[in-house]
């Protein structure tokens, strides 16, 4: 069975970035990274979830953090040099990112935005991110992702 290419995968292909597509069984009750890690047999610290946020003037901000961690909104706001950020309302996710809950990739978002990633990714040979479709992950070198998306690398989780 061949895997259908997503926008994220096509963008990586165009940029000649190496990746591997990994399929997993979707459970609509559990769309989070912990489920993905258990389904793919991977360490939760390597499965990065993509979170969509909104800042001042309805600005879209994307953050990628290890699956079992919690995002520190104050740290993101400070790094973005704005007063506050909050999670994007679920009903606006598709409109703003082109993706649905459980299938939001940091790659392939049409609207201009800033992207952040947790610094723990630097220590890893590879990480997993959503391919932009429920049931599909992309395994890639985090340095390639950071460079491709011009991501800010920092400690953005609650400790």
What can you see in these coordinates?
The chain contains five helices and eight strands. It starts with 6 loop residues before the first helix and ends in a 5-residue tail after the last strand. The strands form two sheets. A five-stranded mixed β-sheet has the order 4-2-3-5-8, with helices on both faces. The protein has one domain: YbaK protein (Alpha-Beta Complex). By secondary structure, it is an alpha/beta fold. Strand 6 and strand 7 (136-140) form a beta hairpin. The longest helix is centred in the N-terminal third of the chain and has 8 residues, at 7-14. The model has no long low-confidence stretch (mean pLDDT 94).
Strand order of the largest sheet: 4-2-3-5-8
> Can you summarize the main beta sheet?
5 strands, mixed
For the record, the CATH class is: Alpha Beta
Which class of secondary structure composition applies to the elements?
A: alpha/beta
What is the average per-residue confidence, as pLDDT, rounded to a whole number?
Answer: 94
Shape assignment: globular
- CATH topology title: YbaK protein
The first-to-last residue Cα distance is 42 Å
Low-confidence stretches: none
SS element count, helices: 5
Percent of residues in beta strands? 25-35%
Cα radius of gyration in angstroms:
14 Å
Helicity, in percent? 10-25%
Q: Mind telling me the CATH superfamily name?
A: YbaK/aminoacyl-tRNA synthetase-associated domain
Which key phrases capture this entry?
single chain; 159 residues; alpha/beta; YbaK protein; five-stranded mixed sheet; 26% strand; globular
